[in-house]
Amino acid sequence: MTLLDMAEFEAKWQQAPVEPHRTVAPSSFYTYTAIPDEVIRNADVSDAAFRVFVIILSHAWERPQDMPPMEWLAQDFGGSVATFRKYLKELEEGGYVVVTRRGMGQTNLYMFPRGLLAPPETGRTKKPIG
User: Which residues of 66-79 are buried (b: 16+ CB within 10 A; e: fewer)?
Assistant: First the structure.
């Protein structure tokens, strides 16, 4: 991104309507989410469920106790709430995410099973470069 692009982005950002869970500061324009290899390489996880996992995980890194409403997560997914729930259920049944429904007017809490996001104890070793 050039300086001119960044200035243009900052100007648009200042004019954008503010939504509590959709504020993107110019300094965090490019963000990344670390995805566990176990989820990436598991052929039993459908492509759509994988996208749902990544969306939830990306928000969980930011504010785990203050997740966006499911409607916004579904919008990030690019589908309806019903479709989002379908793939969320697939992730729950596979043991990749635990959803705690906190009641009317509150957003869900999404947690990941112990060890899923931790570095593996055994695994590949990296070869030295050179």
Answer: ebbebebbbbbbeb
